[in-house]
Amino acid sequence: MFLISSVRRNYLNLRRMSIQAALIDLSGTLHVEDDPTPNAVQALVKLRDSGVAVKFVTNTTKESKATLHDRLCKMGFEVDRSEIYSSLSAAVAYVESGKLNPYYLLSEDARKDFPPEDTERYLNSVVVGLAPKEFNYEKMNKAFNVLLEKKDNQLVAVHQGKYYKRGDGLALGPGCFVKGLEFATGRSAKVIGKPNAYFFEGALAGRDPSSCVMIGDDATDDIEGAMSVGMQGILVKTGKYLPGVVPSPPPTALVENFSEAVDWIIQKNTK
Question: Where is this protein localized, as stated in its record (predicted)?
Fold first, then answer.
């Protein structure tokens, strides 16, 4: 009988796993405000121990990556900052690659992730995220005029979510403000975050989508977006989940919460 080294055994086990990586939504899936969803902390440990790679993907635009990481750790989650991929991360890359000099409609904290405004150059774009304190007439009007100044000036939406989950219920997302600027200027926004392929391809970082699964509470942004690039999708009934909103195609699995999603993955990988 030949003995198989532990490295070789781990490699063979990985090859047999149908799901090798999980993209995990944060707000509404892993936690709601500062409270983990049921058994989520323990479930994340269990998922890691099963050998599945994890990345945390979020459309959250109110918080910088550093703030978000600190908050997750305070909730008890074991998370490395490098494992967080947000729509802000993708938007920063887009701004830098396009050499944009934007007018920002972002929260003060989210603004920390972006390059500083170059006062030697004219403003050639508008970047919009979830920033309730910024959505007043004067600032929206400034954004409107920046876009009208030159026909090539871009409207960049970090995401255009309709709503999100707070402790006191659902609240408006940035989508209606993005749509308002589109309507007023006749411009179409470049949307960065979920459910766009641009976001998921960046988060996958070269992984085969068929070996990956998305776990999220948003039927459109999480599930439809992920499945459109070839991933599997697990929809959880926490956060902003609404039973009347059914993704098309339907999710690979519908479960109560993140903990049950982890059990589903482990069971699938051990068949």
Answer: Cytoplasm; Nucleus
